[in-house]
């Protein structure tokens, strides 16, 4: 060993080596940086800076926005009606009936009418949906099925005659309904649906038919027990006078009564079965529907994008099946917007429970000294503080999405429609996947007490899990984002315009694809690392590199594998690209929200969590940045240290940050999260 050390020392002193080192220092000179911060440990952090003072009231007001009053109305109603609060142990059938009574209570007793806001004030509608979902997620989904899906399909895909006939009944719950799109053999591939609606020109009716078992409508919310109508998506078949005899006009939507309004019995030709007990959301009555030559009036075609005349002629303002299909699905994007927004609500609840408990719970400590809060342990901070920062990031991103969706509904601007479609797909996929993983982390962070059903993690996890599948499978949605990015990339180099979300590609694709600056790659000062420009540039650089590299790979593999084969060969690369882009959008919205906050104290708190979100994400993907020398080794180390320090700082104000969500105790409902005497609450639950 000694001789090897000596050889290494001799080699390092060789003249050639010294010359190379000098030349390197001229090419990439050392950057003068502020003195290095001390090692990030509890004692060092405590002496480094004072605890941030947070104006909780100002922060909460900024977070909850202009529709907090309607949410308070929901909370106050359920707080006054303990009989409508969902118990821990409840059967499937009882849960379904309770969920329906909860919905009646919100609409008919509390006087909250969500349907009136679906089209005219979506921001208010989603605020209501978040509040009722925090009381019981089944209630949030049931409300969404009634108003977003069944009601939304009538007013968005139909015309004035449909609105006039059905609006009041949907609004007051006289006309409870379903959204019958998914089939046993087709979920994500909506264009492959096989239920048929054949026009009969003699009787002026459509005949709805399920041609085989694979076309049975499956997982239809409200169908098993409560639904009276269904919006049925079926292939429109028209008779022709040519050799084929019929013409398939593609998937259209039809209003089909499924139960008698007086007796509530299934109507002739309609077969209804119960999908049974599910992993979660058992307050929602999912069922299966089979149609055997069910006749409906021609007027029951939701005819905004395509109509059939009395003599069987088809007319549409859109020239092709694909255009009509795209327009139809585009009007239903509100479901994805709502799920992304609601998923953040679930994340707020789970983070609040886990963090409040972690502040309360004490285990171990220095010898002969009191035990310390488990949130004082760096490992616990590592689990929960970046999650809290992400919760804030996703809150502002989904608020932005809701605002853009509302603007889209008012203006019908084509570019905005395309932007909201891609953004809702990306955020729904990204946020619901993150929340699903975080629920397990929160349960684990609360140890054995987190396993008690009364502390909600089990029900939250089970109820939320399907968010990753319905309204679009997450993997499929990310592919839509990647496809749109590639389309924008192509248009960028053909001189076309780019939509709002992708504008950074127009502004700086060339600079992002240039070689990293060897000087800035070494900067490691705290001011630099906490500069929003550095953070956003890093996110966008990664996205641009991924976009360029996958475009090159697709071009290469298409020559031998064809378009489909090339896409499949590059699929994981494409999913990573989509996630990277969505993270860039999230960070941009978070930075903007920080800058727009008028209260200095609240703004400082938001800046802290924004920095933690950004640097934690950079650190988690540090290998990518190191591989292309975007970040030098010393800078990577500085990012890691600063991330740990920021986690500690966020821990110091964690209570204020979760309190800003203003979730009442009866909403979190977990005894371990009660803000006063949590252990006393918990012991009472088990009977002491």
UniProtKB/TrEMBL annotation:
Signal peptide: none
Active-site residues annotated for this sequence: 471
Positions of FAD binding: 182, 221
GO CC annotations on file: peroxisome
Domain of life: Eukaryota
Entry keywords, A to Z: FAD, Fatty acid metabolism, Flavoprotein, Lipid metabolism, Oxidoreductase, Peroxisome, Transit peptide
Cofactor(s) of this protein: FAD
Pfam hit, one: ACOX
Residues covered by the Acyl-CoA oxidase C-alpha1 domain: 330-485
Residues in Acyl-CoA oxidase/dehydrogenase middle domain copies: 178-294
GO function terms (MF aspect): acyl-CoA oxidase activity; FAD binding; fatty acid binding
Entry annotated with the keyword Transit peptide: yes
Keyword Flavoprotein: yes
Residue span, Acyl-CoA oxidase C-terminal domain: 531-675
GO biological process: fatty acid beta-oxidation using acyl-CoA oxidase; lipid homeostasis; long-chain fatty acid metabolic process
Compartments, as annotated in UniProt: Peroxisome
Family: Belongs to the acyl-CoA oxidase family.
Record PANTHER family: ACYL-COENZYME A OXIDASE, ELECTRON TRANSPORT OXIDOREDUCTASE
Protein name (database record): Acyl-coenzyme A oxidase
Organism of derivation: Eutrema salsugineum
